[in-house]
Amino acid sequence: MYNAGGRSAPLFSMKHVTIRHVAKRAGVSTATVSHVLNRTGRVSERTRGMVMATIRKLRYVPNLHARNLARASSRTLGMIVSDIENPFFPEVIKGFERRAREQGYDVILSDTNYNPALLKPVGHLARANCLASAIQLPLSPTAR
User: Fold this and answer.
1) How many domains does the chain have?
2) Where are the beta strands (DSSP E) in 2-81?
3) Contact call for residues 117 and 61 (beta carbons, < 8 A)
4) Residue 120 belongs to domain with CATH number
């Protein structure tokens, strides 16, 4: 990763390379970097190649959280289960996650442990993370 001093940093450093870092190093505007990343706008092949080389060199990874907030949506689905230790759920979770990945979605999982009071904070987290959608499996052991 790139840091302010221009030196390489460990792969999992807490310093996050931004499009500003990429733009500065490549000698282009942040708008140009954005156009290259999103495949929008008119960018010459030479400039596109230079920006992509800089992205690889700096190990730039787009901040999906920021992207999701800007778009007010994501390619992430939520799954809320009532008891992750219930033997019924692992196959359901695996099937849901497999199908979601086939469609280009990631999945986050939350366990309420049959506590309805946990649904509100989980719902808040789903909205805060701009989930595309969420599914809730039965809340109580007797729910059908």
Assistant:
1) 2
2) 76-81
3) no
4) 3.40.50.2300
Distance CA 107, CA 75 (A): 9
| Closest-CA residue to 62 (of 92, 30, 90, 105) | 30
Residue 134 tokens read as 């969420």
The full DSSP string for 73-91 is --SEEEEEES-TTSTTHHH
Q: How many helices (H) and strands (E) does the chain have?
A: 6, 3
Q: How sure is the predictor about 2, in pLDDT bands with cuts at 50, 70 and 90?
A: very low
Residue written as token pair 């190649």:
49
CA-nearest of 64, 58, 54, 48 to 17 is 58
- Per-residue pLDDT of 74-83, as tens digits, reads 788 889 888 8
Task: Give the structural domain span for 107.
Answer: 70-136
Q: What is the pTM of this model?
A: 0.53
- Find the range with the poorest average confidence among 1-15, 46-60, 103-117: 1-15
